[in-house]
Specification:
The chain has 16 helices and 24 strands. It starts with a strand and ends with a helix. Strand 12 and strand 13 form a beta hairpin. 38% of the residues lie in helices and 24% in strands. With 501 residues, it is of the alpha+beta class. It is globular and about 55 Å long.
Length: 501
């Protein structure tokens, strides 16, 4: 039985995993870089150990160092979260070879589904439609041009081992292709240590729909209700919701059957996500499988009541899934807004700084998964996600209203965030009607900016007033019974010192 888990990650996802572990009576081990020394995931974990300096290559990507910490701390399992080493098959194998439990899929399944060309081949063998494209990685320009002409422009050049929107280029003509190939290969090499790319037909204005799957080593494989992830910028998701306004029950069952077939064929166990593109005629095409916990997993948790991290840990420990059969049934509607340290009205340029004020929204149906605190420095070294705000409602209208209220309550001072941009999207008639696709943000940027500038000004005015009230309130509380009050409790200070041992 798993008793102590090392979380090979940071930020909100590390906090998320730590909380479920503690609910299960499992001790946790955090790792941290120099700049994360007093981050929430460090303070919440049972133990915490330094692993290097700020650049991820010198800390969170140091597989050997992380394994050394696992050994010295007495951990018996490793959870990779998402990003960093989560889809690195060599790290997963090293974890297992060192005698630890890997809270993730088998390495063979990771290898099959992590390679997008291999995954497309597997899907085709199961009779699942794929977007027309190359069956092998592209190795030379002449062959690439010939293939692109056959499937028809526009096409996409994509990294074989990619993810998160990196290593992708859209190509509209033969002349553009050689340069796009070189740029995609270069970005793929720097991001994934793999120069291989392939070519795929660019579908016009599709919907991005994904099916969450769970599988155990006892032969059970369960699909959960779909997530709609079409609100994206540069192929990176910003707002997700479940269920989709576009998918009816009949189509969901077809997609779920395909997702289960792919999952079973790959020998996958644990929690994973099968992603599809769906065109206007509701034809769906396999896109890829993510062999890890997804950023947007809380959306599914909110409508199903299933703790996906708990299921991951149970399956890794050899237990059966806590549910059986498909889970087409769900309760209500959930929406997630990703809160990034970016200015959404300035082409999502990253924002760095120090968190000066932090007001967390709450209330019925609201969940805010985050890994930040006041005084924390937001650096350019890591993914700019600060947190994920999730709203649940009995129906979509209620979820949107609740999310709008929560976004207005959420104040993060010190860096620009995507909160004002998300508010603009939620106010847009296209989003409110459910009539949107993956081109929504790029097509509506002008209208969103026009609407958002007004909301941003109001948002900043409200934030300024609240900050002034908060500071005034702090001033009034500096004395208790005539004596100065401590700005931080002795208990918390002691806990922080213990966490930083």
């Amino acid at each position: 039985m798993i008793k102590k888990v090392l979380i090979a990650n940071r930020g909100e996802i590390a906090v998320r995993i730590i909380r479920t572990c503690h609910e299960m009576g499992i001790h946790t081990v955090a790792v941290f870089s120099d700049v994360d020394r007093s981050s929430p995931h460090v303070l919440l974990a049972t133990e915490a150990f330094p692993i290097g300096s700020a650049p991820s290559a010198r800390s969170y990507l140091r597989a050997e160092k992380i394994l050394d910490v696992a050994k010295s701390s007495g951990a018996d399992a490793v959870h990779p979260g998402y990003g960093f080493l989560s889809e690195n098959g060599e790290f997963a194998a090293a974890v297992r070879e060192a005698g630890f439990t890997w809270i993730g899929p088998p390495t063979d399944a990771m290898a099959k589904m992590g390679d997008k060309v291999s995954a497309r081949k597997l899907a085709m063998e199961e009779g699942v439609p794929v977007v027309p494209g190359s069956e092998m990685p592209v190795v030379e320009k002449t062959g690439a041009i010939e293939l692109a002409r056959i499937i028809g422009f526009p096409v996409m050049v994509k990294a074989v081992g990619g993810g998160g929107g990196k290593g992708i280029r859209i190509v509209n003509s033969t002349e553009e292709l050689p340069g796009a190939l070189e740029r995609a290969m270069s970005e793929s090499a720097s991001s994934f240590s793999d120069r291989r790319v392939f070519i795929e037909k660019l579908l016009q204005r599709p919907r991005h729909i994904e099916i969450q799957v769970m599988a155990d080593s006892h032969g059970h494989c369960v699909p959960l209700r779909e997530r709609e992830c079409s609100i994206q910028r540069r192929y990176q998701k910003l707002i997700e919701e479940s269920p989709s306004t576009f998918i009816d029950n009949k189509l969901w069952r077809k997609m779920a059957q395909s997702a289960v077939a792919i999952t079973r064929r790959s020998g996958y166990t644990g929690v994973g996500t099968v992603e599809f593109l769906v065109d206007g005629n509701k034809n769906f095409y396999f896109l890829e499988m993510n062999t890890r916990l997804q950023v947007e997993h809380p959306v599914t948790e909110m409508i199903t009541g299933i703790d996906l991290v708990r299921e991951q840990i149970r399956v890794a420990d050899g237990e059966t899934l806590s549910i059986e059969g498909d889970q087409g049934d769900y309760l209500g509607h959930a929406i997630e807004c990703r809160v990034y340290a970016e200015d959404g009205f300035a082409d999502f340029i990253p924002s760095t700084g120090t968190i000066a004020e932090l007001d967390i929204p709450g209330g019925f149906g609201i969940r805010f998964d985050h890994g930040i605190r006041v005084g924390q420095r937001i650096t350019p070294h890591y993914d700019p996600i600060l947190g994920k705000l999730v709203a649940w409602g009995k129906n979509r209208g209620e979820a949107i209203s609740r999310m709008r209220r929560a976004l207005k309550e959420c104040h993060i001072m010190g860096v620009q965030t995507t909160i004002p941009f998300c508010l603009a999207v939620l106010s847009h008639p296209g989003f409110r009607s459910g009539d949107y696709d993956t081109e929504f943000i790029s097509a509506e940027t002008g209208n969103l900016r026009k609407d958002g500038d007004k909301k941003r000004r109001i948002h900043h005015q409200i934030a300024s007033v609240l900050t002034a009230i908060h500071r005034s309130d702090l001033g009034n509380k500096t004395k208790i019974n005539g004596r100065p009050a401590s700005p931080r409790s002795i208990w918390k200070s002691s806990g922080r010192k213990d966490a930083l041992r």
